[in-house]
Amino acid sequence: MMRTKGKLAGYRRIVVTIPVFLACYTFVAMLGSGLSSRAEFFPVFSWSLFTYVSDTRVLCELDVISVDGEELPAPTQFYDLPEYFPAALSRDIRLLKTLQRACVARIEGNEAEFDALRRVIENSFLSARRNVRYKLLTRTYNPIDRWRDGTVMSTKLLGEFQTGALTR
Asked: Would you state the torsion angle of the CA atoms of residues 58, 126, 134, 102, taken in this order, to the nearest 10 degrees?
């Protein structure tokens, strides 16, 4: 008989706790939205979590123009050339981050940092080939449009370079 009373008390506690929690949750949400000028009261109500995400992205990219004196048919993104560069096959995130830092340094006019980052890019990612001509550029695009059909909104050339032009 004693065991049944314990189970019954636990059941009653749950039956009372759930409605009390729901009532308090609703009250806090209504009170918060009434007192705040915001449309949502996080963490009580947060329905539009991704409504303010930008639909455009600006990315710094490396396009290869020629490899060891062989002109490519068209400038080609580094990651699309795994037959020339083993690092392109792995899609190493370090290159993307280094490119982003290099482009920011170039845009801000910090040539010393830009040259240092260029050395890193050339020595770490382009070193599989002796002579590489490439360009750095920023592309502005909508990720969904670019994924679907390759559409790019704008491209800004930051410079055209040759490996080995900097002293190592």
From this structure: 40
